[in-house]
Amino acid sequence: MDRPEPEKFMALKATIFKADLSVADLDRNVFADFSLTLAQHPSENDARMMVRLLAFMLFADERLEFGKGLSTDDEPDLWLKDLTGAIDLWIYVGQLDERWLRKASGRAGRVVVLAFGDRATDVWWEQNRATLQKLANLTVLRISGDDAQALGALAKRSMALQCMIQDGEVLITGGEESLRLVPDRIMN
Fold first, then answer.
1. How many CA atoms lie within 13 A of 179 on its CB side?
2. How far is CA 15 from CA 70, 130, 150, in A?
3. CATH code for the domain in which residue 36 is found
4. Which of 7, 13, 48, 167 gets the highest tally of CB atoms within 10 A of its CB?
5. Taking residues 155-164, what's their average pLDDT?
6. Which structural domain, as residue segments, surrounds residue 112?
């Protein structure tokens, strides 16, 4: 009797996006151009990927790198290391469990969470506020669900984007499209 051949499952691969990014951050006096490659995890939607790109824009630096994020528990979405390899900045996109944030807070000089969405972010913040407020090096920024969706609409496999930041307001333009948003600083 012939046995059926077992099904073979292939892991889904990341989708690669290229972004030529020009940042003019008047708040931090940073003016630079970046050629970035973003790997979109199979479980990640365009909105989350573009919030990661927004995180890069907000903290643009020549040493800022994308981490493995969703595919590795002990790496952030973005991080900035000093020349010795010590982590100066750990950035996570989404609503991370407070245990992981405590761990990151012990490993990095500064930790930033870019939470996005409306109701889910509110629930996450209310459930974790008391614990998170004890972390002196943690900053929590919130991006509205509408702004996250608008960012996702800017996603293209090959993008040329300009970002200007002034007085906490972010203006992102790409081709004929533009988006203006202000990240809400929930905790500093």
1. 23
2. 14, 38, 20
3. 3.10.640.10
4. 48
5. 96
6. 21-187
**How high is the pLDDT of residue 9?**
47
Asked if 185 contacts 171 with a C-beta cutoff of 8 angstroms, the reply is no
How far apart are the C-alpha atoms of 5 and 16, rounded to whole Å? 33
Please tell me the predicted confidence (pLDDT) of residue 75.
Answer: 84
The model's pTM is: 0.90
From the centroid of its chain, how far is CA 126?
21
pLDDT in tens, 26-76: 999 999 999 999 999 888 899 999 999 999 999 999 999 998 766 566 789
Q: How far apart are CA 186 and CA 48, in angstroms?
A: 19
**Does any domain span residue 69?**
yes
β-bridge partners, 180: 171
| β-strand partners of 178 | 173
Does a structural domain hold residue 180?
Answer: yes
Token pair for residue 35? 């050629």
Give 58's Cβ-side CA count (13 Å radius). 29
**Separation CA 11–CA 4 (nearest Å):** 21
Q: Which two tokens stand for residue 59?
A: 């903290």
Confidence band, pLDDT 50/70/90 cuts, at residue 11 = low
Angle between helix 46-58 and helix 145-153 axes, rounded to 10 deg: 100
The number of domains in the chain is 1
On whether residue 14 sits in a domain, the answer given is no
- Identity of the residue numbered 89: L
2 is a domain residue: no
